[in-house]
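Supplementary Note 3. Input sequence used for the single-chain structure prediction.
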Amino acid sequence: MYARIMISAPRKSSGKTTVALGVAAAWRAQGLEVRPFKKGPDFIDPAWLTRASGTTCHNLDFFMMGSDVVRQNFLRYAAGGDVALIEGNHGYFDGQDLEGADCGAALADLLRLPVVLVVDCKGASRGIAPLVKGHLDFPGGEWIRGVILNNVASARHEQRLRVALERYCPVPILGAIPRTRTMEISERHLGLQPVVEGAEPVRQLRLIQETIAGHVDLEQILALARSAEPLAVCNPTVPEVVMPPPTVRVAMAQDEATHFYYPENLEALQQEGVELVPFSMLTAAQLPAGVDGLYLGGGFPEVFMDALTANQTLLAEIRERAEAGMPIFAECGGLMMLAERIFWGDRCVQMIGALPIAVNVEKRPVGYGYMRIEGSDALAWPGPGVQVACHEFHHSRVTRIGAGVEFAFRVVRGFGVDGQHDGLVYRNILACYAHMHAQGTPGWADFLANFWSAKKRK
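The predicted structure, written as discrete structure tokens, is reproduced below.
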């Protein structure tokens, strides 16, 4: 049946993440099995949605995956659940393509999604009506089946909003959320505070759930989800993934400082025979026993500089193992950890030192958004001239590169390391700012499995 709903908004920072979290958590509390999705490239919102729903959140991204894979992934990961909840990104009509081929409306059209529009009403009353009516009348607006009013100042304010919308906009109002700071999730330079950090997110989710349940018509939203048009499905069940026996054992950093991993990427690596062994860069005294390689994903190493640099025993072991030939793959925050030093404001701390580079964390984004990189002769994958669609989110900049470092990729779109290149290759290390998605990047998992097992490394 694929009951499904999208939570979107006219623009970013309207409250759609909070609403999506609250709806997911409230439905879960009612005993529903919620299958969450996030449109676009993102690690932080999906982690919150995973925590709220109790089910792994998956990304749906046109740029990295293409429409066919987006649809296949939705059908695969939504199967078997009671209701699928998709959180949009940016505004409902926002995207890279002028014709809207990659916006929220395009996703709604592809997956035949009823859409609930979360509208930030701060400082507005009658003016909300033309905003909503414009969305309803614009191509793709026919999927909008309801509106939630957010940031409502008072009962009088709510009444004025309702009268205006009921007069001009033929769409039901599914809730009115009062203006409050108690539901706000702390933000930092790359978005929301990650859900993995401390006990505060648990308390915050509970407050969000209670507020949304008290001010939003959950039953009507569920009815809209269940009214979604049938989707043509060849195989309505989730195919069983058979994992082969492991052929290489890889330590994977996974903690508050390092946790940006797409679940599909980890699954793809396991299907290539990679056994991923989680450990903490913050608390582990040493690497897991018997590992052949190391995977350092993205995160916020700058926020945890003190804890990282205090764990010198582990940092020294990684440095020694790198010098002895252990292959290391690092993405974004992982690249920063491999540096000799990280500078942030007036602070400087020593990191692993396996890469002869220095990194500076800046106030404004250095690389932010979609990337396209092109292979070179430095690596066996993806091959010279072969392009890969990916993305980057970093405030850090590589300010010094020592002798012996090569570049693996040419940046066709984006910034990477220096605006022209990405992928630092040094001895047995590959470190890049690019975040790739296995389902839009053929050969990525196979290359890394061989890279860590040293079968095809150059």
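The longest strand covers residues 144-152. Residues 200-215 form the longest helix (16 residues).
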